[in-house]
Amino acid sequence: MGKINILVVEDESIVALDIKIRLQNIGYTVSALAATGEEAIQAAQIHRPDIVLMDIKLQGKMDGVSAAEQIRAQFDIPVIYLTAFADEVTLQRAKITESFGYLLKPFEERELAAIIETAVYKHRIERRLKENEQWLSTTLNSIGDAVIATGPDGTIKFLNPVAEQLTGWTQAEALDKPSVEVFVILNEESLEPLANPVEQVLHSQQRLAINRHTLLVARDRRQLPIEASAAPIKDEKGATNGVVLIFKDTTEQRAAEAKLRDYTAQLRAHIEELDAFAHTVAHDLQSPLGHMVSMADAVKTYHRSMSPEELASYLDLIVLNGLKTSNIIDALLLLAGVRKKGNVIMHPLDMHTIVREARGRLEHLITANKASISVPAVWPVALGYAPWVEEVWVNYLSNGIKYGGQPPRLQLGAETLPDGQIKFWVQDNGEGILPENQSGLFTPFTQLSQAQTGGHGLGLSIVRRIVEKLNGSVGVESPLSDGTGSLFYFTLPAAGQPQ
């Protein structure tokens, strides 16, 4: 450390000169002498001394206390007061300026050196502490997490801007308030108040991780999901001087996690569809295509020796397998189309017309199986997308005809549920479906048949995909109360319900 530069402010020139000589004898440098408060401020600005020796009583408009106050405020230079006498009011003013000591005239050189060295050292330590505090404050104010610090009694001593934003308290408002008043947390599931983490840490003297299922109740009663931790603030001797709380709003994080879960579910569904598509191509399409090829080859080879009836039978089988192949491809295309289509514009449905169109498409199947279908006279109005809902009815009706009783008797119906959904159903008179076989019915490519009657198993997975896309659900109830039959249903939002 170099020589200490000192500014001497003394309005008596002889005294000022004496002080200068003493300081130089001790080994200090006197950068300037000033006789008035105004001169002192100007000299401090020019020379920037390490310390100022300031006479309290100065001639002119500005006394030593006022000059010292401005020098401390503008240049952060420590001041030692020189005084022979002073009234109580002046001394009180001097204390407010945070002087680094007093010297009573006359004084000894040893006394002068001691107080100067002490003042310079104290000021340098103070400046270092202020720099550290500023660095710490800047760091805490700049980080993205909320930070609250308390004293050893649990009262608030610091909030950074993020903590102010989340809690709704400014640092000035929260200062010295109990932490339990500012940092209020609830259990997210029960909404019951949680124990105050500051009190827990002060009691345990250990770091505490706060359950992520936690809500912060802000000053305006907003509830924010947070993740938080608390830890004791200890000094170099291990004594606890307070607690630091670090927390963050997890609203966006949870939204991102939910979106990731949705993407994962979609990806899983896409993989499921790809697997199912491969299964269909490898198995369900292979069979009718194989029959078509073998029968076409037989016709090509033996047509000259076939009777007209035998040739017609082979050709009918080729057409039948061709239609089966076409139906499988159409179902695959429909399933893919439902998945790819974005938001569907839903309209009130004319269910009477939709069911009539579905029955028309199945007329040959109804006639061939001598099926009877009972339809209600009035349908409740639901919201949906008519072409897709028609596919749902076609699947449910065709399954009811194929796998119902002999002959099939189908009952169609609908009812409005308490949650605002409308439940539509097809009830058959078949043998019913065992409970262990019901869970996989709406999984892609699970066959409905209980009697190994064939089918490619696409229908119910299409139904599920369509109805879920229309904000509804699907299901089966079997056996019914009379011990026979099954009821396949789907739900759609009632017209007038918010979407």
Structure explained in plain terms:
Helix 15 runs antiparallel to helix 17. This protein is α/β, with parallel strands linked by helices and 499 residues long. The longest helix has 34 residues. It folds into 4 domains: 133 residues, 3-Layer(aba) Sandwich (Rossmann fold), CATH 3.40.50.2300; 106 residues, 2-Layer Sandwich (Beta-Lactamase); 88 residues, Helix Hairpins (Orthogonal Bundle); 157 residues, Heat Shock Protein 90 (2-Layer Sandwich), CATH 3.30.565.10. Helix content is 47%, strand content 20%. The strands form 4 sheets. A 6-stranded antiparallel β-sheet has the order 7-6-11-10-9-8. Strands 2-1-3-4-5 form a 5-stranded parallel β-sheet, with helices on both faces. Strands 13-15-16-18-17 form a 5-stranded mixed β-sheet. The protein has 17 helices and 18 strands.
Secondary structure layout:
Elements: E1 5-9, H1 13-26, E2 29-34, H2 37-47, E3 51-55, H3 64-75, E4 79-83, H4 88-96, E5 102-104, H5 109-142, E6 146-150, E7 156-159, H6 161-167, H7 171-174, H8 179-182, E8 184-187, H9 197-204, E9 208-217, E10 223-234, E11 240-249, H10 251-284, H11 286-302, H12 308-340, E12 347-348, H13 351-361, H14 363-368, E13 372-374, E14 383-384, H15 386-403, E15 409-416, E16 421-427, H16 435-438, H17 459-469, E17 474-477, E18 487-493
